[in-house]
Amino acid sequence: MTRSAESEAAIAVVRRNTEEVQGKGNFAVFDEVFSEDFLDHTPQPNMVPDKEGVRGLYAGLRKAFPDFHAVIHWQTAEGNLVTTFKTYYGTHRGTFLGIEPTGKTIQFETVDAMRVVDGKITEHWGVANLYSLVGQLGLQLQPKG
């Protein structure tokens, strides 16, 4: 079974975001691949669910982890909706979630879905293993009760 041209084009846009914006900090590409009316259905805490919110998230991650990058394990698409499973890597060189730099190398997994319309990312849904990440940075989360 082959992918449709729409799916192939959508995957290419999402991959470009992962590799060039997240992985290299190229925010000129960010403006090329994100729609002005972008909506994040699963924003991170204290982030607004729009284009500027995701720009702030990406910038914050790059500041905290200057070598931040992802390895894409697989991507699939149904029409213009792309699902990606990837692992992020980086070295903790700046404050992140209130945690001062530790110099530790981190990794955490993510699964997300992005809708691409007319070559631009318009929507996002995602789940990241932030519990693992904060544990790697030395924060011990205690269960309530």
Automatic annotation (TrEMBL):
GO annotation terms (biological process)? polyketide metabolic process
Known Gene3D superfamilies for this protein? 3.10.450.50
**InterPro entries named among the record's database cross-references:** Cyclase_SnoaL-like (IPR009959), NTF2-like_dom_sf (IPR032710)
Q: What highest taxon heads this organism's lineage?
A: Bacteria
State the SUPFAM superfamilies in the record: NTF2-like (SSF54427)
Pfam families named among the record's database cross-references: SnoaL (PF07366)
PANTHER family, per the entry:
ESTER CYCLASE, POLYKETIDE CYCLASE SNOAL-LIKE DOMAIN
Q: What is this protein called?
A: SnoaL-like polyketide cyclase
